[in-house]
């Protein structure tokens, strides 16, 4: 019963309605264990009678919200969903079953569900006699949940390494001071990017030396609503008075120096996107293990000539071994420069999917 098109030429109406579903999905929260999903329901005459989006783990899924709004008008109608309707029972019931019970005649979705536990919705729908069309605006829909999709495929969280440095690569002066390398606009940008992640990870050395809050804050210093989990990696004890132990955000301590072990522990608690803000030692450990997938660095138009480098020893001995980056974006933010790039493998370090450049100065 499926419409299994062999090309990507879709009906204009299907594209327009899927684009609306994507707009709805964008209202869902980033940094949530569940993907962002949007849904639109049409009645048999093609009139939009229901819309919905998933508002985070534990809340009704997008299809259920849209079906509630549509009511009986959904019968013999069409559903547009950004992600293949799920086929499993978790905190909520299977969306595929909800669509079947609502009596829809056709389901159009963009991204196939990559999870082993939830996929299979299309097969359930077709077994019930419902026509399905897959792949409409799949790239746009997949981009909604880049980190979630990556983590499902990789079996670990996506890692974004963020750092700030002077033009000569220094993240701190010779006396250890690093506030502030970049300006207020760049630092505000960092907080916006932090808010999209599930966890902020640093080493115990950073906590002991800088006492960072590791929270998402507004320009006036107040914290925003949702906060990523603060993850402290390392074996050294941290002071009981450390700001990362206050009640402004949840904190997890991982007694390990092994990046792979840390990411395994985070995957087990459904962390999909890690924001790596540790100092040069932690950054080098993740890079050397091939476990950095994105880099965000802000470069300040300043020179120090000495002081701590942005990254520690990577074991590179010659220029031919240099870890090369392919830039995708160069943006000025106030007086500072943000560079977005991807890593080109030249000496055995795994290639990250993308790299960005932002600031790491003890925010």
Layout: helices, strands, pairs:
Layout lengths: L1 E2 L8 H14 L12 E5 L5 E6 L8 H9 L7 E6 L11 H8 L3 E6 L9 H7 L3 E4 L3 H7 L1 H9 L3 E9 L17 H11 L4 E5 H7 L18 E5 L17 E4 L4 H9 L5 E4 L3 H9 L5 E7 L23 E10 L2 E9 L19
Parallel strand pairs: 1-6, 4-5, 5-6, 7-11, 7-12, 8-9, 8-11, 9-10
Antiparallel strand pairs: 2-3, 2-4, 12-14, 13-14
Helix pairs in contact: 3-4
Could you give the order of strands across the largest sheet? 10-9-8-11-7-12-14-13
Helix content: 10-25%
Structural class label:
alpha/beta
**Principal-axis shape:** elongated
Q: Give a short account of the largest sheet.
A: 8 strands, mixed
Q: What is the CA-CA span between the terminal residues? A: 54 Å
Q: Which range does the strand content fall in?
A: 15-25%
CA radius of gyration is 23 Å
Give the H and E element order: EHEEHEHEHEHHEHEHEEHEHEEE
Low-confidence stretches: 1-7, 345-363
DSSP summary: helix tally: 10
Q: Overall pLDDT, averaged?
A: 87
β-strand number:
14
